[in-house]
Design a protein that fits this description.
Strand order of the largest sheet: 1-2-3-4-5-6-7-8
Largest sheet: 8 strands, parallel, barrel
Oligomer: single chain
Number of helices: 12
CATH class: Alpha Beta
CATH topology: TIM Barrel
Order of helices and strands: HHHEHEHEHEHEHEHEHEHH
Shape: globular
Helix content: 40-55%
């Protein structure tokens, strides 16, 4: 209850306070900030995936600028010889404007990435966009692009069927728990239910020969994944672990020491405030932890 109250009142908190909390989880305002951070991660044997912040864009020029920034990111990764990919949200590329317009923006990025031998991950957003996101992603695959993957959320009841529908295409899937607030009719709500579904879905990915990006900070799920990988002799080219920037860095480093591939999500851009507020409101527990850290001066 207290965490929820904190999350709801965050928009009334001074921006400087939110920035105090957010700076650990966002690379900075500029592409140069993100390049520096990814380079430092690479030095620690960690791969990056860079994301220019923005969601729910309804202005065509803003969506075109986001696509332009995607191209800039790809060029920077190539020029600086970084070990990184690009993550994109389709509402940032104009999904709320027009599906075909969004698709052309997405395709241009995937095409450019293919030229540079780079990878583009299509992020998943909340449920009104799930079917449309998967439809545009399938179009990309059907055009023959093999340098792109998608995200599925373990709390969504439909995700098992979505994996099965993508299995024949051998689509690389990033599996996360899910952070958006959804109706119980379409999403699991109980923590243990979500964990058990995550395990089922991860097993399904491996059983279908699909590449699995294991995106979680949850110890029971990390333990399950490592045990499954070891027991079934899953080769390192079939999976990687993924974590958010600034979250559980000790666990991140532990996974790297064990020899696992690990990728960190590196968001940047002037929309850090909107991004932070949305994420914190969607996850009241995190809002509570951040406010405690602020009060302690950490």
């Amino acid at each position: 209850m207290l965490n929820t109250l904190i999350a709801r009142t965050l928009p009334m908190v001074p921006k400087s306070v939110v920035h105090f909390a957010a700076k650990k989880y966002v690379a900075g305002d500029t592409l140069e900030d993100a390049v520096r951070l990814v380079r430092s991660l690479n030095e620690k044997l960690i791969t990056g995936t860079m994301d220019f912040l923005g969601e729910f864009v309804t202005d065509r020029k803003q969506a075109e600028f986001a696509a332009h920034m995607g191209h800039e990111i790809l060029e920077a990764i190539h020029a600086h010889k970084l070990r990184s990919g690009l993550s994109v949200k389709l509402t940032c590329l104009g999904l709320d404007i027009d599906d075909e317009f969004c698709y052309e923006n997405l395709r241009s990025l995937v095409f450019k990435a293919k030229e540079l031998d780079l990878f583009v991950r299509v992020d998943m957003e909340n449920s009104p966009y799930t079917t449309r996101t998967l439809a545009l992603y399938r179009r990309i695959l059907e055009e023959g692009f093999d340098n792109t993957g998608v995200v599925l959320q373990a709390y969504m009841r439909r995700s098992e069927q979505d994996i099965k529908s993508l299995a024949g295409l051998k689509a690389p899937v990033r599996l996360c728990k899910g952070i958006y607030r959804e109706d119980p009719a379409i999403a699991f709500k109980d923590r243990e239910e979500i964990r058990e579904n995550y395990k089922r879905l991860l097993t399904l990915l491996f059983e279908n020969g699909m590449h699995a990006a294991i995106a979680t900070h949850d110890d029971p799920l990390l333990d399950f994944a490592r045990e499954y990988i070891a027991k079934n002799s899953i080769s390192k080219d079939r999976y990687e672990f993924q974590m958010l920037l600034g979250v559980r860095e000790n666990k991140r480093d532990e996974l790297v020491r064990e020899g696992h591939k690990l990728r960190t999500y590196v968001p940047f851009g002037s929309d850090w405030y909107g991004y932070s507020i949305r994420r914190l409101k969607e996850n009241p527990e995190v809002a509570g932890h951040i406010m405690k850290a602020f009060l302690k001066g950490e």
